[in-house]
Every structure is written in structure tokens, then in C-alpha cells.
Amino acid sequence: MIAFVRGTVAGVTLSSAVVEVGGVGLEVMCTPGTLATLRTGHEATLPTSMVVREDSLTLFGFLDDDEKQCFELLQTASGVGPKLAQAMLAVLAPDDLRVAVTHEDVKTLTQVPGIGQKGAQRIILELRDRLGAPVGATSATRTGVPSSAAPWRDQVHQGLVGLGWSAKEAERAVDEVAPQAGDAPDVGSLLRAALLALRKA
């Protein structure tokens, strides 16, 4: 298994990054928050988790080992595959996820596209004794800060579309959370705010 990749970022797409390792370009699937920390031409180190299927090998990349561990634990719950696990981490930081599960906060979990009330209850039941206590990495302390306003808008918009919302819905949500961006926008927090706005609409 590939535990991490380190190399030059050769490119960033809507949902993945290509990291050059020893002359080979590895495509790594990432959340918008993780992608926002990567810059083409710069070196990056990403903890990774490989998902093996009969017809594919997919490499998922993360901000840190804690996020990677949560990704792998989430998949042990019934009905949670790698795409849904990644969607959960796009919406909730690892500690936000732990708090939601510990406090049986169904409402917070159902903010994730693809998770209904029954699914949230099942995740709580199966994972509340496995995710552990919060370790301090809540959304308020996580960073994914682009260098200017335009990149965060693109990242949040692309993240919403990747999670199943229409381009028009995504654009409306981005406009709604724009006042929260400030001078140093945090893509992860803005994405979560946009998803909350869409849920309320």
C-alpha cells in the first residue's frame, strides 16, 4: 500500500491533483480543502489511502494523518464507501465529525449530500466507539487558504458540483457565503457554510 506521496504538484483538477514522484505522475483524489493548499510546481506531501477495486486502483490524498485515519474508519460503517467518506470530510473536519458522532448529532451529519437520517443514525451507532475523542483539529483551526479571492470561489464552486449540486445552485451558494471570506478565505470553512446554505434553501 502507498502510505504517502511526496513530490512536485504537476497539476490540480476539479477533484484531484497529479503529483510527480520519481518521474511518474500519480493522480490523487482530494477534497476541495486539500486541493486549495496545493500549488502547481511546488512540492507537496500527502498522506494517502489506496482503495482497490476489481477494475480500478484509486489513491485518495489528505491534509494530514488524522484526516486519513477518519477516512478509513468511516468506510467500516455500513453503506459508506470511499466517495461518501471523502464527501463527509469535505463537509466536516475530523474533530467536527467526532463531535457530531459523539453527541449523536444527526442534523450535522445529514448536511453531507448522500447521507439521510437513517444513514446518519447508522454511522453514529457503528462508529461512536471507534472515532475517539476530538483532538483539536476542528474546522476553526484547519487551513486551506488560497492566495486571492478568485481561487476560493472556484474551489468552493467545484467542490459543491463534485458533491452533486448543480452549477447554478453552487453559484448561488458561493455568492451567499462570499461576505464571510474576508482577506484570508478558508476554503474548507466556506465550503461547509455553502453546504449549510444549500440545505436551508
Automatic annotation (TrEMBL):
Residue span, Helix-hairpin-helix DNA-binding motif class domain: 72-91, 107-126
GO cellular component, one term: Holliday junction resolvase complex
Function, in words: The RuvA-RuvB-RuvC complex processes Holliday junction (HJ) DNA during genetic recombination and DNA repair, while the RuvA-RuvB complex plays an important role in the rescue of blocked DNA replication forks via replication fork reversal (RFR). RuvA specifically binds to HJ cruciform DNA, conferring on it an open structure. The RuvB hexamer acts as an ATP-dependent pump, pulling dsDNA into and through the RuvAB complex. HJ branch migration allows RuvC to scan DNA until it finds its consensus sequence, where it cleaves and resolves the cruciform DNA.
Name of the protein described by the UniProt record: Holliday junction branch migration complex subunit RuvA
Domains: entry comment: Has three domains with a flexible linker between the domains II and III and assumes an 'L' shape. Domain III is highly mobile and contacts RuvB.
Family, similarity comment: Belongs to the RuvA family.
GO MF annotations in UniProt: ATP binding; four-way junction DNA binding; four-way junction helicase activity
Places the protein is found: Cytoplasm
